[in-house]
Amino acid sequence: MKPKLLQLFSGVIVMAVLLSGCVRGQSESSSEAPALFGSETTQAADDSSISDMGFDTEKESSTISNESSSLVSQQNDNSTTEENTVEKMILQIGNDTFTSTLENNDAVDALVDMMREASVVIQMSDYSGFEKVGSLGTSLPTSNKQTTTQSGDIVLYNGTQIVIFYGSNSWSYTRLGKIDDLSGWEDALGSGDVTVTFSLE
Asked: Theoretical Cys-Cys bridge with 132: which of 118, 124, 160, 168, CB 3.0 to 4.6 Å?
């Protein structure tokens, strides 16, 4: 009987040890699982934060880029406005003053540069009863086109001569400008030679 009891007692002890080991293993696994889960959650949160930060940075960069583009566009608009500003030229004939609107071409640009340095004074002779013509003393760029002129037209002929009209003629000219108000124009030019001073307004 004693050996059987001893055997039974030993079996109970072994079972108890095995059960204790299983419970401990489960406990350790259970305690580790939340840590791992928590770590993954934290990493996901960090990734989400990084993603959010990246999105905000990209949005701010886009805003800055749009503001820069708007500024450049505004500067270009201002530059275009300045370039498109119509410049006026003054013609002084004796005691009479006339204002003309200038064309937009290379010849006018060169003439304006001359007038910015000093007024351009030209002795002009009458020709054929419809124009006054005089030498500029230098050559300007030409963009000649067959033109039928009218009273008040100012043109460049042959690259070196300024012609102002009080009548009409058809020829190949480079247009320079046109008198804005023809009141008293023909009377000021008269029938003989005149001295005309060209200047900027």
From this structure: 124
